[in-house]
Write a structure and sequence with these properties.
This protein is an alpha+beta fold. 30% of the residues lie in helices and 17% in strands. The chain has 3 domains: 9-120, Beta Barrel (Elongation Factor Tu (Ef-tu), domain 3); 128-199, no CATH class; 214-326, no CATH class. The protein has helices at 114-120, 146-150, 164-178, 219-227, 234-255, 271-283, 291-305, 311-314, 324-332, 336-339; strands at residues 9-16, 20-25, 42-46, 50-60, 75-85, 95-97, 108-111, 128-133, 141-145. The chain has a 6-stranded antiparallel β-barrel. The protein has a two-stranded antiparallel ribbon with strand order 8-9. Helix 5 (234-255) crosses helix 6. The radius of gyration is 31 Å and the shape is elongated. The protein starts with 8 loop residues before the first strand and ends with a helix. Mean pLDDT is 82; it is low at 336-340.
Amino acid sequence: MFQPHTGDRIGRVIAVAATHVVVLLEARDDGMPPQTVQMGVLVKIETRLSTVFGMVSGLRVPLPSLTSSQADLKIVEVELLGERLNDPTAANGGFRRGVANFPALEDAVRLTTQDDLAQVYAPPRVASVAIGTIHQDSRIAAHLLIDDLLGKHFSVVGTTGTGKSCAVASILRAVIERNPNGHVLLLDPHNEYARAFGDQAVVLSPDAGLRLPYWLFNFEELAEIVLGAENAHPEQRKILADVVLTAKQTHFLRTGLEKNGTIDTPVLYRMSDVLRSLEAAMGSLSRPESVSAFQTVKNRILALQNDARYAFVFGASLSLRDEMVDILSQLFRIPSTAAR
């Protein structure tokens, strides 16, 4: 139930902007120093029509004293999050994101109560999962909206050791438990999550099961692998593009794409044909100084073929065939018979 003017008063509003307000901390009624306010704490500001909620996003002392801190002005920056209408019978009553009724100068700022926190963080009526509790009160569950979470980009940020990996694992476990038929593709270059999901996960790695052959990549992706992420010499890029396109010509002729096929057309081709085209091009050069660029491209391809770390891309195969069905069935856990 809505109860106005509850919660300890900590200060008053001294500046208002579209997204945040600035608060001056006040001494308590008993004459003691201002209450300690931490980053991330939810506070509330009572306006004429609503109670506005915001989160502490900054703390500062503009002119620190060299003698006693009790006389210092203590400033709190509060980021506005949403509001609750003062009329509990209104059709759109309850907490809502966004602020329509902004605080005014001198409005009181108070700490939120447990009832306030319960209403702000109440489980939504749409599909959601509980992933833990809020920092300010461990009795209040923290929920995530599944559709909004997975339908948009989001990030989990924090300094080293603060539990980012544990947070991601908790989110994914909660989503999977709520949606047992869902599929999650997790890229884990540091092998942090394999043990977090037990037998719920199928782990694909370059050493076991992962297969992404070079012919799957477009030219930009292939050039980044072969020539490096840095800006390669334009001559080397042109050489690689020419020999890859030549290697694809055989498939173009067989499938009738000789007039429409491009360097990015996803068709099968052999890396041995690419090396053979490089050798032929080097043998036909009239200027020896031009051979070095061709030799560099050739050496990079050979180095990748001999590097065990890239076996899942350039590994030798007795036959060249379209493996897209098998690859997609592995990544998305779809039976191959169903995918066909």
